TrEMBL record:
Sequence intervals crossing the membrane: 6-24
Subcellular location: Mitochondrion membrane
GO BP term, example: proton motive force-driven ATP synthesis
UniProt keyword list: ATP synthesis, CF(0), Hydrogen ion transport, Ion transport, Membrane, Mitochondrion, Transmembrane, Transmembrane helix, Transport
Similarity section: Belongs to the ATPase protein 8 family.
GO cellular component: mitochondrial membrane; proton-transporting ATP synthase complex
Gene Ontology MF: a single term: proton transmembrane transporter activity
Name of this protein: ATP synthase complex subunit 8
UniProt topology in membrane: Single-pass membrane protein
Amino acid sequence: MPQLNPNPWLFIMLSSWLTFSLIIQPKLLSFVTMNPPSNKKITTPNTTPWTWPWT
């Protein structure tokens, strides 16, 4: 069964992960977001209970 032969696929998988982790990932992480998150205070909405007419 040739699918179980890890000889070519192991090298392809390792080389692709090394390429991603050493070359592509630092380039992607170097981008700065255009809208950084702000330090706003979290406000909870003031809700009132619903008054049901039949109770």
